[in-house]
Structure prediction request, 213 residues.
Amino acid sequence: MPDDIFDTRYEDKEVEIDDGFVTVGDDVNLLEKDPSLHKVKIGMGWEINTFDGEAVDMDVSLFLLDKNNETRVDEDFVFYNNMMALDGAVKLHGDSRTGAGEGDDESISVDFHGIPFDIVRIAIFLSIYQGMEKEQGLKLLRSSYVRLVNEENGIELCRFDISKLVEDREETGMIVGYIDREGPKWHFRPQAEFHEDGLFTYGKSKGLVIIQQ
Prediction:
């Protein structure tokens, strides 16, 4: 595998975790955390740090990438207009447009047993819908995080708090982490990779043309 490609509300259930908080640069072997894991739920939550102006619509997306660090087909991009891929092995649960309420605002389920072997990386992307047009940046977020949960037993595997990372950011999108395949194992690697124009340029680099509608 080329070296250059390596540069969650669970039904309102919260459980205790041990040393589950992670930071950029960490490498979490998910199967070491929970050997029974094969269905993971990626949950993200946030609040909006503004009381006036136009509403901020946050979205969570996944890019399913091959060894060339590209999508194989358009359906390998899972987002609000394509909420399911790989015969249901990857599924986006709803689209929160406000960030209101407790727990995860959006979540995506991934069944590792349903991921073809030519997909070696899953990129987790957080973006503001039409952020550039509305002049809205990630700095509007507070209490924001991504977490990985065993979907079958509700155990939280790790949590990545991104609140301080975004507090001064004008960009409208960011990669918050990668889930990388290494043989039979899957590793979560937290990231803070910012993209000024949200999904557009990153998607283009993966072989997609993204039009927000």
